[in-house]
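Protein NDNF: structure, please.
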Amino acid sequence: LKMSWFWFYLPLHLLMAACLCYSIKAPTTSSQQSFKTDLFNFYHSLMLADGKETTIHLLKDIPKRYYFVLEEGRALAPFTITVTPCDVPIEWSILVHKASASFLGKAAQGDHDTQEVSKSQKAPSMVSTIFNYKGNSVETYMGMSSHSALYMLEFLSTERDTHITVYLTTDTTSGQLYPELPVDPRIDVIGIGHTTVTLTWKHSPSVLQHRENIQYCLLVNEKHNYKSLCAAETAIRSSGMKLPPILALSLSPYLLEPQQVMILSNSELSIINKASSGDVRQICMGTKNTYTVLNLSPSTQYYFDVFIVNLLTNASAAYTGTFARTLEEPEPKVMELKDGKVIQVVLDGKNQKFYSLQYQARHKKIQFTFQLCRGQVRVHIMKNGKTVALENISGLRYFLLKGKLLDTYLVQLRSTEESNSSVKVQVSPHFHKPLFPLLPESLKIKSFSKLRTCNSVTIAWLGTQEESKYCVYKKRIEEDRVWMELRSADRCSGPESRHKSEKVLCKYFYDINLQRAVTTETIKGLDAGTLYLFDVYLFGPSGIPVRYHSKVVKTRKKC
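Here you go.
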């Protein structure tokens, strides 16, 4: 008899029984060969650990076998086996050696692919199959044996290489490895918006018993539901990303991959995985059983899976997944533009929504004027459905367009920053009186460092060939407020928004020769070693001002 290492694990009476049976001459050559095959399969299997979750890697079309032994000790020896496929459907079976004379067992979960086999078969084989299953669901088998028995589990993947987890326990009194699902494990959708979905689910009994060691994790994606946490992790990894070891981590920080974004707020851990097929979002929210998923895309179907996870063992159980489609985004309101009328539009940077304006031409040549007040704005102009202009604007921008009478123009505006942006818009016939003054080549203000003193600074700015009014204003600021002042400045606001004490002077000037259209001004009465913000406003015939770019200058500390 060829010995195998696993014989050392067998109880002595089973070993003797097996040897005795093998020494008896079989009645026929075929039955003898079958008996040898059965024993060979058992001897070339690995032992399955009791009370521990085991990860098993399967190669395509190559079966893998594990065995375990039930000892005598009481009238009925209970045991449970839970198998979790982590990718494709698999086939798995439980086989028992005929040395076990009687066996009672049942599947914890019914399935059309699951079969129960009676305690023995009238075949010459020494091994009988008591349970088999094919699919990708988490399946638990519960059984009882009235005698010492030798069992073998056989696993097979016919689609591709994959991995599974297997949990065997013979101790049914000290609690389960996996968190317990409620009687009704469904996820209910209780609210749907354009960019939000609100979910709720019944509490797990494990939460009520071990609240500090249990938490819920939600997975959101646009492809399909997942029947287990390891299946979800496998799918995400297959898209080219790496995951943390388990979604159910405590809220302590850990390293993320470059394609991952972690958001931690209000005791919730959210991880967004950037993949070519879309975002996969994971949120762990403690023991809350109601959650609103934010920042979804309108008119998009999403799949939602909730996992209840034991933080001490990393074992998890999956609720029955659900899906929902967000509402369609309402058509943006279109505002009509009128000849020569100026409107100011505030754009929501957070939601990145378009603001639409429409104009029907009464002339063949028209001019659109945009004055950027705050932030950054992208302008898209279409004529009769075709794009004629598309660009990000800064400062003051004109678009002169030619067409036919009654052409329809649609202007779409969008903030390109997360903060709100603002812009003034005017459309008019080309020959219409200009809204804004003639502008110089540059709107920058220059200061002269050598001309600075402890109580004065000298600034200069460009003018035009058209006589215009220029007003200078100053404001004392702190060093830590410079960036904020420049960032939040409304470039469309005029001197009316300034305090009277900030006004320095107003003056008129122009020069036919643009090379000499430069003016300077020395501002006196300043404090030593102090930062000042200087602004120049240019007024045209219409009275609407254009603000030069603010200039920050610091007076000398010692003179």
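Notes: The first helix runs from residue 12 to 23.
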